[in-house]
Amino acid sequence: MMKKSIIRPETGSSNQLTENAIKEHKKKVGEVILVAITPRTTIELPAHLSQAEIAERVELYKKLHSSKI
Fold first, then answer.
1. Per-residue model confidence (pLDDT) at position 56
2. Three-class DSSP labels, the chain
3. For the chain (length 69 residues), average pLDDT per consecutive 10?
4. Count of beta carbons in the 10 Å neighbourhood of residue 62
5. CA distance 17 to 5
6. Residue 21 to residue 27: CA distance in whole angstroms
7. What dihedral do alpha carbons 23, 61, 34, 25 form, nearest 10°?
8. What pLDDT does residue 5 have?
9. CA-based, 20 to 30 A from 25: which of 32, 33, 47, 56?
10. In this structure, are residues 33 and 47 in contact, taking their beta carbons and an 8 Å threshold?
11. Rounded CA separation 52/65 (Å)
């Protein structure tokens, strides 16, 4: 017996909408830097931040994700 494939066009368009939203967000943010939290974890932060602001964001990340670090 042959199975019929179900075509779901909304899935493809949903993925495309997500990709477009990410691209637009990256354009708004501009230059970013990668900051290593652990050897396996990095986060992207805007490049214009000062060292104090970067340290603050890293501490906030660690606080919010303490179970994963």
1. 97
2. CCCCCCCCHHHHHHHHHHHHHHHHHHHHHCCEEEEEEECCEEEEEECCCCHHHHHHHHHHHHHHCCCCC
3. 60 82 85 92 92 96 84
4. 14
5. 24
6. 10
7. 10
8. 63
9. 56
10. yes
11. 20
Q: Which of 48, 18, 51 is nearest to 32 (CA)?
A: 48
Angle at 12 between CA 1 and CA 29, to 5 degrees: 155
Task: State the residue for tokens 């490049």.
Answer: 47
* Six-digit token string for 17: 């909408």
How many Å apart are CA 43 and CA 37, to the nearest integer?
Answer: 7
Instruction: Please count the residues of the chain.
Output: 69
From the list 9, 14, 69, the residue with the least C-alpha distance to 37 is: 69
